[in-house]
Amino acid sequence: MTALWIAHVHVIDAEAYGRYAKAAGPAIAAHGGVFLARGGRYRQMEGGDRSRNVVARFPSLEAAVACYESREYQAALEHAKGAAERDLVIVEETPPASE
Questions:
Q1: What is the pTM of this model?
Q2: pLDDT value of residue 98
Q3: Partners of 4 in beta bridges
Q4: What is the phi/psi pair of residue 52, to 5°?
Q5: Burial of 35 (0-12, 13-18, 19+ CB in 10 A)
Q6: Which tens digits make up the pLDDT trace of 70-92?
């Protein structure tokens, strides 16, 4: 079952967060992650607003968690600390309904 990595981000320091994004991309790809949305247009309908929204699909919940816990991603994440306020959740996708 595939899984989605959903992040809502408010960037405080664009330069430092850019270093995070540059390093995080390869770590995500190495674990089978593919970006579905990455900072594009959005409309906040409920809840708190964060100006950057990112969605990546992974082959499984386990692959997404392994990515987050990986040495490479944790090294990238050091650049985001203090550079952004972030919420991140990993959720397993619902399979398509059978017809």
A1: 0.89
A2: 75
A3: 57, 91
A4: -125, 130
A5: middle
A6: 999 999 999 999 999 999 999 99
SS3 track for the chain = CCEEEEEEEEECCHHHHHHHHHHHHHHHHHCCCEEEEECCCCCCCCCCCCCEEEEEEECCHHHHHHHHHCHHHHHHHHHHCCCEEEEEEEEECCCCCCC
The residues of the chain scoring below 50 in pLDDT are: none
Share of the chain above pLDDT 70, in %: 99
62 CA to centre of own chain:
15
Phi/psi region, residue 62 (left: phi>0; alpha: psi -120 to 50; beta: rest), is alpha
Beta partners for 92?
A: 3
